[in-house]
Amino acid sequence: MAHLGLVSLVVRDYDEAVAYYTHALGFELREDTAREDGGRWVVVAPPGARETGLLLALATTPAQTARVGDQTGGRVGLFLNTEDFDGDYKRMVAAGVVFEEEPRYEPYGAVVVFHDLYGNRWDLIQPA
Question: Which residue ranges does UniProt annotate as crossing the membrane (predicted)?
Fold first, then answer.
């Protein structure tokens, strides 16, 4: 196996999710294709990402809706690597991203935890 292709993220609305991930996080919209069942195949990814992207999956059942924003039981579940920690942190703050702490500088790198628009916890991290 060469790489992890997509990670599915359950969302409550395609358009609000696309707007958040492309504007606040600076991701690119890679695909937005209508499906025969009325749904959409929507993929976003950081600029320059070659392998892994986020499949924005619309919640369609009560069980899925209940998991929006809590897919990992409150743990950090997504890790956004950067080569410009300070610049990306400042850009994200200006875009309204909610951070739950001040940046930390650990032996493994610079890191700060943020929430996406649904409450999913992410690390913005620049590995050492």
Answer: none
C-beta of residue 76 within 8 angstroms of C-beta of residue 115: no
**Answer CATH for 70-128 from 3.30.360.10, 3.40.50.150, 3.10.180.10, 3.30.450.20:** 3.10.180.10
Domain locations in the chain? 1-68, 70-128
- As to burial, measured by CB atoms within 10 angstroms (0-12 exposed, 13-18 middle, 19+ buried), residue 55 is middle
Q: How far apart are CA 87 and CA 68, in angstroms?
A: 29
In CATH, what is the architecture of 1-68?
Roll (3.10)
Q: How far apart are CA 77 and CA 122, in angstroms?
A: 6
Q: Please check the confidence at residue 1 and state whether its pLDDT lies above 80.
A: no
Q: Judge if 1-68 and 70-128 fold alike in CATH terms.
A: yes
Cβ neighbour number for residue 27 with a 10 Å cutoff: 20
Q: How far apart are CA 54 and CA 103, in angstroms?
A: 24
